[in-house]
């Protein structure tokens, strides 16, 4: 984390220029209940899973690495406290994630109930976040950036084919599987929307550095086209090692960031070599008018994208991921029953314990509440 990179025109350390964005996700108060929480949770799950270590924590609660005692498979389990935190957002995340079966998307496995928590079991990505890989490297070569971007687009394209837009694509929501040739895995569908189940999105959700101009408009927008913008930001960060729309001299001023997004004010520093073809693609992604922005199908035909396209991604276009043997373990009805039961507070739950859960992302709020200069901001809802 100590290597220097340049963000905009200013030389900053990686930790200064690339800071994690939080989406309605304040740091979890570890002093409140994590240890007791986990003892309660695993007291009932130990027959099936062996707890290994904590993977992370946030507003939702805690995520842990566990081992299936029968299959010996390592899986990640996300625990959300039963009761009021099991809201429409959680239901949406689970139902949308459950329907997705693709090599570039973290695999949803099942949901379980404990006496105190709803447990979401999913594939474990041993390679960690793509964000951390960039922080270690400073920035990627164009070939390496393209390698990961191709996988990102493959996963997003599949989501869109299933009529699901992610709405919070960012480096922190892309994991790696840990193999020598890393496979990218999209995760965290907490703000996703399904065109089959929900209305067109209109709420302002996302992380400021990645958010598309139309998402700030408070009007209905095409979530798929907004996802394209976020993919472009991800590509830029991989190439440059900094965010495209941050004010170089004041990167934590989110109001200035939003102003630069709305005016599409970005540049690639002269000292970074980026090909003409790549610059052409970025210029067609960073277009304020979503109707004129390049689409995912068009990106997949772009010459820069097609260069050195892995064979598995070419073949993946012809693969049917909806085969019977690859379907989720639980039916939608069973999942909904478990979610409904999880809305009942668990044993020993205390009102006000931990931190408040996220509000409904389809409720509007004033712009001032969307821009929080504390550094933990997240766009608004």
Would you kindly provide a written description of the structure presented here, covering whatever features stand out?
There is one protein chain. The protein has 13 helices and twelve strands. It has 381 residues and is of the alpha+beta class. It has a domain at 128-316: Transferase(Phosphotransferase) domain 1 (Transferase(Phosphotransferase), domain 1, Orthogonal Bundle), CATH 1.10.510. It has a five-stranded antiparallel β-sheet. It starts with a strand and ends in an 11-residue tail after the last helix. 42% of the residues are buried.
Briefly say what this structure is.
The chain has 381 residues and is of the alpha+beta class. The protein has helices spanning 14-17, 30-45, 88-98, 130-137, 142-161, 223-240, 254-262, 276-285, 296-299, 303-306, 311-316, 332-342, 367-370, and strands at residues 4-7, 10-13, 49-58, 61-68, 74-81, 108-113, 117-123, 128-129, 164-165, 174-176, 184-186, 193-194. α3 (88-98) packs antiparallel against α12 (332-342) and α5 (142-161) runs antiparallel to α6.
Fold blueprint:
Layout: E1 4-7, E2 10-13, H1 14-17, H2 30-45, E3 49-58, E4 61-68, E5 74-81, H3 88-98, E6 108-113, E7 117-123, E8 128-129, H4 130-137, H5 142-161, E9 164-165, E10 174-176, E11 184-186, E12 193-194, H6 223-240, H7 254-262, H8 276-285, H9 296-299, H10 303-306, H11 311-316, H12 332-342, H13 367-370
Antiparallel strand pairs: 1-2, 3-4, 4-5, 5-7, 6-7, 8-10, 9-12, 10-11
Helix pairs in contact: 3-12, 5-6
């Amino acid at each position: 984390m100590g290597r220097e990179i340049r963000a905009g025109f200013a030389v900053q350390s990686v930790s200064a220029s690339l800071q994690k964005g939080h989406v309605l996700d304040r740091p979890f108060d570890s002093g409140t209940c994590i240890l007791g929480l986990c003892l309660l949770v695993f007291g009932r799950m130990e027959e099936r899973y062996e707890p290994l270590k904590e993977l992370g924590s946030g507003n939702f609660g805690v995520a842990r690495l566990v081992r299936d005692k029968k299959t010996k498979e390592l899986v990640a389990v996300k625990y959300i406290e039963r009761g009021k935190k099991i809201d429409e957002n959680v239901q949406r995340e689970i139902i949308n994630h459950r329907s997705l079966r693709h090599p570039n998307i973290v695999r949803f496995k099942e949901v379980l109930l404990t006496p105190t928590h709803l447990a979401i079991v999913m594939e474990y990505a041993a390679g960690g976040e793509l964000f951390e890989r960039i922080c270690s490297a400073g920035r990627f070569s164009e070939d390496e950036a393209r390698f990961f971007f191709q996988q990102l687009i493959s996963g997003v394209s599949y989501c869109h084919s299933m009529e699901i837009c992610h709405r919070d694509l960012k480096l922190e929501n892309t994991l790696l599987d840990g193999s020598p040739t890393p496979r990218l895995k999209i995760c965290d569908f907490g703000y996703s929307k399904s065109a089959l189940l929900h209305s067109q999105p209109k709420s302002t959700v996302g992380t400021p550095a990645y958010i598309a101009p139309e998402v700030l408009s408070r009007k209905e927008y095409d979530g798929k086209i907004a996802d394209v913008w976020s993919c472009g930001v991800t590509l830029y960060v991989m190439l440059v090692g900094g965010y495209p729309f941050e004010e170089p001299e004041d990167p934590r001023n989110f109001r200035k960031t939003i102003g630069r997004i709305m005016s599409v004010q970005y540049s690639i520093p002269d000292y970074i070599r980026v090909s003409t073809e790549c610059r052409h693609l970025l210029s067609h992604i960073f277009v304020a008018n979503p109707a004129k922005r390049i689409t995912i199908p068009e990106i997949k035909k772009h010459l820069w994208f097609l260069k050195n396209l892995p064979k598995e991604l070419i073949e993946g276009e012809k693969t049917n991921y909806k085969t019977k043997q690859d379907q989720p373990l639980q039916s939608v009805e069973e999942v909904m029953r478990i979610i409904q039961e999880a809305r009942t507070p668990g044993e020993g739950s205390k009102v006000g314990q931990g931190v408040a859960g996220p509000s409904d992302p389809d409720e509007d709020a004033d712009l001032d509440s969307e821009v929080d200069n504390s550094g933990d901001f997240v766009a608004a809802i």
